[in-house]
Amino acid sequence: MSPHPALPRERGRETSPQERIWSALAEINDPEMPVNLVDLGLIYGVSVDRGSVAVRLTFTAMGCPASDMIMADIRERLLAEPGIEEVRLDIVWDPPWTSARLTADGREALRAWGLSV
User: Fold this and answer.
1) For the chain, what is the HEC assignment?
2) What is the pLDDT of residues 86-112, one digit of tens each?
3) What is the per-residue pLDDT across 42-86, written as a single tens digit (0 to 9) for each?
4) Looking at per-residue confidence, does 12 or 30 come out higher?
5) Contacts by residues 73-80 (CB-CB < 8 Å, ≥ 24 positions apart)
């Protein structure tokens, strides 16, 4: 599983299938706040093998009411990528999510939304 890479922020710079998947995941916002899943630190790793993608992810809490919606959004978005035929999601709780997993962009977005992080 690849760890969180520097996200390609410019169109046309994406060079690897994993970067492409990380970019796609960064297009998905948490339904409860205006921060994408990558900047929120929910994605722990990604692996790509031919037409199959495996994503390790967590949630901010075990009883997250948006977990089903987030998983459906991930599957829908990744299956829209050319050549992706299967998406496997592995929910992990160790290490647990903390605000330390937020990226600088994630922190800035939450502060702009009025949350203290």
Assistant:
1) CECCCCCCCCCCCCCCHHHHHHHHHCCCECCCCCCECCCCCCEEEEEEECCEEEEEECCCCCCCCCHHHHHHHHHHHHHCCCCCCEEEEEECCCCCCCHHHCCHHHHHHHHHCCCCC
2) 999 999 999 999 999 999 999 999 999
3) 999 999 999 999 999 999 988 888 999 999 999 999 999 999 999
4) 30
5) 73/28, 73/31, 74/25, 74/28, 74/37, 77/24, 77/25, 77/27, 77/28, 78/21, 78/24, 78/25, 78/53, 80/24
Roughly how many angstroms between the first and final C-alpha of the chain, as a whole number?
A: 28
pTM, to two decimals = 0.86
Give me the residue label for tokens 């890479």. Answer: 5
